[in-house]
Write a structure and sequence with these properties.
Radius of gyration: 20 Å
CATH superfamily of the largest domain: Hotdog Thioesterase
Bound molecules: coenzyme A
Number of helices: 5
CATH topology of the largest domain: Thiol Ester Dehydrase, Chain A
Strand order of the largest sheet: 1-4-5-6-2-9
Distance between the termini: 30 Å
């Protein structure tokens, strides 16, 4: 039976200016896209078929990957359920000149093996931890799974009850709309999650930049669950609202982003009409729910609590 190490996929990317967000360093959304690509390769190989992203845990961006550096993403399957796979992805930035590697983040994702009609599909493959370290990874994956399922059940209930955050009166908002095109899909007509994460990050980033009138970088991202597939020919609406910040020209912005989807297909006309009303905030928010935090990319933020926490975490890796 294969071990966890046997499932490892390593993705190596040279970081070009086209991958940058804030000048000279990688765009957070691009990194999330790469993380889901590496995770999809590891999960899909083990499942031997299409997989979709069911959930992603919190991500802290501990250190940037700079233009000209090499990003190394290592993904491995750490546990397998009936149809789901727990995948860990670790990212390093490698300085080409010195060869030094810095851990920039670690994340855990759940992929679900699906049939052509995007229904959970049993996975035949099994893995067995081969070392004590792998045994620990396996146990942690089981613990995360239990926590995630609890969170998932709670969110489902609260989402069904409609918005509860009381952010209707927020002044700083951003909204963008885009259609899901065939090249957004990898398996069948389901949107590849990395593409959506990139757009989500961009919506929050644009709002934060407008608010603080300066460059921003994504600092961390709360866990999120994907309830329903987004398909080609649907329209995605991204809404971002600034729901918390310290002083206007410094510190952190905590941005609430919600995305909703609708379809132009005739049978979903009612949904489309409700989406028209969304500008008045009447459409229940559906598939994606998360909070993002952005830290301003300015020198005066360096002493802040969150940045300190991130640096401390970095030094322990
Ligand atoms: C993932 C998806 C197929 C699951 O369908 P479902 O009918 O809710 O599936 P079930 O409740 O039967 O669960 C199936 C498995 O997925 C796991 N799962 C589903 N959602 C999960 C979540 N948010 N977190 C953790 N595990 C999850 C379940 O634990 C179960 O695992 P197991 O078979 O190993 O025990 C469905 O929610 C979906 O299509 N989501 C959108 C996926 C997507 O399009 N992602 C990209 C967005 S751009």
């Amino acid at each position: 039976m294969p071990s966890i190490a046997d499932t490892t996929v390593e993705m190596v990317q040279l970081v070009f200016p086209e991958h940058a967000g804030a000048p000279g360093q990688i765009h957070g959304g691009r990194m999330m896209e790469w993380i889901t690509e590496a995770g999809t390769m590891a999960a899909g190989r083990v499942a031997r078929g299409p997989v979709v992203l069911g959930a992603m845990d919190d991500i802290d961006f501990l250190a940037p990957v700079r233009v000209g550096e090499i990003a190394i993403l290592r993904a491995q399957v750490e546990a397998i359920g009936s149809s789901s796979l727990e995948v860990g992805v670790r990212v390093w930035a490698e300085n080409v000149g010195t060869g030094r590697r810095t851990v920039t983040q670690g994340s855990h994702l759940v992929f679900v093996s699906v049939s052509e009609d995007v229904k959970p599909w049993p996975i035949q493959a099994r893995i067995a931890p081969a070392t004590a370290d792998e045994g620990r990874l396996f146990e942690e994956a089981q613990r995360r799974r239990a926590e995630r399922l609890r969170r998932f059940a709670q969110r489902r209930t609260s989402e069904a009850a409609g918005p509860t955050d009381g952010d209707d009166d927020v002044r700083w908002r951003f909204e963008s709309v885009r259609s899901v095109l065939p090249d957004d899909a990898l398996f069948g007509n389901v949107m590849f999650p990395g593409k959506m994460l990139k757009e989500i990050d961009e919506a929050g980033g644009i709002l934060s930049m407008r608010y603080c009138e300066g460059f921003v970088m994504t600092a961390c991202l709360d866990a999120m669950d994907f309830y329903a597939p987004t398909r080609t020919h649907e329209v995605l609406i991204f809404k971002a609202a600034l729901n918390f910040s310290y002083y206007r020209d410094r510190h952190l912005d905590d941005v609430l982003i919600r995305a909703s989807q609708l379809s132009f297909r005739p049978e979903r006309q009612r949904l489309y009409q409700r989406a028209q009303a969304m500008l008045a905030d009447e459409l229940p928010w559906v598939p994606v729910y998360l909070r993002l935090q952005w830290a301003l990319a300015r020198p005066e933020v360096r002493g802040l609590r969150l940045v300190k926490r991130l640096k401390a975490a970095l030094s322990t890796n």
